[in-house]
Design goal:
With 205 residues, the protein is of the alpha/beta class. 21% of the residues lie in helices and 19% in strands. The protein has helices at 50-61, 78-85, 117-124, 134-141, 186-193; strands spanning 69-70, 92-100, 103-110, 129-131, 158-162, 171-174, 180-184, 196-198.
């Protein structure tokens, strides 16, 4: 699925409670953990589909500040997600699962970029790469086609991240179900998936 480039709101930062003073409340500052890392907000789970809850927890565990959120309508494609988010389709990180010689391969590609299976086979050293069946996708990810998130799977998947996504300051990825997305960045997708950056198809026109 995919969005259009209106700048997305930056993820909320947790704030330490300020105390009152004669001059008014003191400024609030981001909460810091004992080890010096930024304390991230607890994921908002209430009302989320169970798949989206699992993804939200996985993201929080990986230090991702962006929250999983519901769209007004399901967005099984990049175009439908982009339309609802008010961003360009290229800013959507399409989660495509391929069958690479029988093993799952997750490709996070820009919604404006079509993945080339011949290129993907060369990247991962497979004899053949083909689009996976719905059953194959569910078995590998626990999530349905159109809602596959970069994380939250039964086991880590080999992942390729389209370098085309680096053109966008904020990209949007699926949250485990076609009704859910979360904001992230190209660099963050590489980090949380241990993905390989690659050109996955012809450059968009």
């Amino acid at each position: 699925m995919d969005p259009q480039a209106a700048p997305a709101p930056s993820p909320d930062q947790p704030q330490a409670a300020g105390s009152g003073s004669p001059e008014g409340p003191t400024p609030q500052h981001p909460a810091i953990n004992a080890d010096g890392t930024l304390a991230l907000p607890e994921p908002e789970l209430e009302g989320l589909h169970p798949n989206a809850q699992k993804v939200a927890l996985a993201l929080a565990g990986l230090g991702v500040a962006g929250q999983v959120r519901a769209l007004p309508e399901p967005a099984p494609t990049a175009a439908t997600a982009a339309a609802q988010l008010g961003v360009g389709v290229g800013a959507i990180a399409n989660s495509l699962v391929f069958d690479a010689d029988g093993a799952p391969l997750l490709v996070l590609t820009s919604g404006a970029h079509r993945a080339d299976t011949v290129l993907l086979a060369a990247i991962c050293g497979a004899q053949k790469v083909s689009r996976a069946t719905p059953d194959f996708v569910r078995s590998a990810t626990g999530q349905p086609i159109g809602g596959v998130a970069p994380v939250g799977h039964p086991a880590p998947l080999r992942t390729v991240v389209d370098v085309e996504l680096s053109r966008y300051d904020v990209v949007w990825a699926a949250g485990g179900h076609p009704h859910y997305v979360f904001p992230t960045t190209y660099d963050e997708l590489l980090r949380i998936t241990a993905g390989e950056a690659a050109e996955v198809g012809e450059q968009p026109g």
